[in-house]
Specification:
Distance between the termini: 27 Å
Order of helices and strands: HHHHH
Shape: globular
CATH architecture: Alpha Horseshoe
CATH superfamily: Tetratricopeptide repeat domain
Structural class: mainly alpha
Radius of gyration: 12 Å
Number of strands: 0
Number of helices: 5
């Protein structure tokens, strides 16, 4: 559901659903990254930075999930711009 609301640009609702799904997610880094990106869209730079850092740490722990580096690069770029 988080992705549905994200796609509709309802970022606050997306964050709510992402946070609820976090404990059930197998790949927690993607949920953290989605939350970070949603916070960035609503201009909450502090939370965007915090979730980006958590997502990057999770990505490093979940290396097997990342065949491409698009998400990691997007988070790093966002952190540099924050």
């Amino acid at each position: 559901m988080g992705n549905v609301f994200y796609g509709r640009k309802n970022y606050k609702r997306a964050i709510s659903f992402y946070r609820k799904s976090f404990k059930y997610a197998e790949n927690k880094s993607v949920i953290l990254a989605n939350i970070a990106l949603a916070y960035d869209h609503i201009k909450n730079k502090g939370r965007a930075r915090w979730y980006s850092q958590k997502a990057l740490a999770a990505i490093n722990r979940e290396k097997s999930f990342y065949k491409d580096k698009r998400l990691k690069n997007e988070l790093i770029a966002m952190l540099k711009g924050v």
